[in-house]
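User: Hey, quick favor. My workstation is busy. Could you predict this chain's structure for me?
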Amino acid sequence: MNVLKNKTVLVTGGTGSFGKKFIQKALTLGVKKIIVFSRDELKQYEMKQEFHDERIRFFIGDVRDKDRLYRAFDGVDIVIHAAAMKHVDACEYNPFEAVKTNIHGAQNVIEAAIDCKVEKVIALSTDKACSPVNLYGATKLASDKLFVSANAYVGDKKTSFSVVRYGNVAGSRGSVVPFFKKIKVTGTLPITDERMTRFWITLDQGVQFVLDNLERMHGGEIFVPKIPSMRVIDLAKAIAPECEIEIVGIRPGEKLHEAMIMEDDARHTVEFDTYYVIQPEFPWWSKKFAEGGKVLSEGFAYTSDKNMDWLTVEELYEFAEGQF
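Assistant: No problem, here it is.
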């Protein structure tokens, strides 16, 4: 089954790393039309030079602008919500702006999707939304809650909402990989703490996980992939084995280890071979929606330091092939 075939799909933040990769994939899956919704006209111009396909439409707009979302969502079947302020430092320094984009923007997307009769909405989340310690994570946790609860506001409309949550994306704009690659010419790479661990996923894997869950979703789930962990110091060694390592200390709002499922969520989470589903606590939610899933043990938590799957320095080369 191909959930995108003959559908009109809109991607908020469509000029970002995920958006571009998702659109590239969607064009091979028989979409009727793809709408790129973003606020940066230069990035849209550059994307037009890269993608030559008559099915793509470019909408300048901001998720903060509800009226523009209503116009853009007219006739849309599926929305992928990837627009966000995502840099921890920027969110800490501009907290009101982060709230406007990540929380108010989420509410605008929800209301426009319901009123415009969009069929399915998947919102992208982050491991930083699980037990957040910084404003970015807190705004994304609020966003996740809004999208899950939106299913209770639909009424007799057909719209369903779900969330996909995963970890660091290899090679995405602003991530540690291009940063390390850029500064390795100095001969030194800064590491905040040699014990630091992170979840790791490629753009291709992230896109495929969203596509898979567009098929699976009933509305209200938070989908979490089983992905490997890596030590940041191993990543540095993989990118620039010739460089010296400088320990600079953990920055404000940064965790030593990340989490995607904590004990309280685990009580209503089920496990499948390659992913977890955090189930919504709705009266109408049926256990049949998660048939085949395994109930997690008491006290389970899915964290980057206690993960069973780890990448070595050598595996990081292969795992992020083409990123370095």
